[in-house]
Design brief:
single chain; 187 residues; mainly alpha; Ferritin; 69% helix; binds fe (ii) ion
Length: 187
């Protein structure tokens, strides 16, 4: 991979998944925060399990960003669009979106309602998968692509598991005929 492409990678693609609105940091904090108000132990466990795994993915993406950007020359930084990031963060790994916007809790939600939260989680997994798809369209680095394909596959599994969780939630609510209430809060 030519140096310019390495820089583009670090700047426009990997960082997006590290701290972007559909990235691993948002995913882990979303699930590990939503878990508390889940009314059923299976759903608490599901969110804890996937949220913890997403923290591991955050570490993987951080390592990729670091490896792609740590040895840049001044000229490479200047000519490949890494200059603004470099001024603020040198070659440190800071959680931002590809646009440069710092990661924000405003990019996620904890609604305290299991149907609302699990539906958001399904969308989050699908958006993460699309983001990884887009990275694979732009990257031809085999080492990076192997890691991205692994992470993409995990997002598909998470989407399926959240789908199962949503079905479990609806079945439990139907059993007690409380579908019109929020069982996380209404007693
Ligand atoms: Fe995921």
């Amino acid at each position: 991979m030519p140096p310019e492409e390495i820089i583009l990678w670090g700047h426009f693609h990997s960082i997006l998944i590290y701290g972007g609105p559909d990235g691993e940091l948002g995913a882990s904090l979303r699930y590990l925060s939503q878990r508390y108000s889940m009314p059923y132990p299976e759903l608490k466990g599901l969110l804890t399990d996937i949220g913890t795994e997403e923290l591991g993915h955050l570490e993987m993406i951080g390592a990729i960003v670091h490896q792609l950007t740590r040895d840049l020359s001044d000229d490479q930084i200047r000519t490949a669009g890494f200059d603004a990031y470099f001024v603020d963060h040198t070659a440190g790994v800071y959680p931002t979106a590809a646009s440069g916007f710092p990661w924000s809790a405003a990019s996620m939600q904890v609604k305290g309602d299991l149907i609302a939260d699990l539906t958001e989680d399904l969308a989050a997994e699908q958006k993460a998968r699309v983001t990884y798809d887009n990275i694979l369209r732009l990257s031809d680095d085999p080492d990076v692509n192997d890691a991205i394909k692994f992470l993409r596959a995990r997002e598909i599994v998470h989407f399926q598991r959240f789908g199962e969780g949503l079905r479990l939630a609806k079945d439990r609510m139907n059993e007690k005929n409380i579908y019109y209430l929020n069982p996380s809060f209404d007693r």
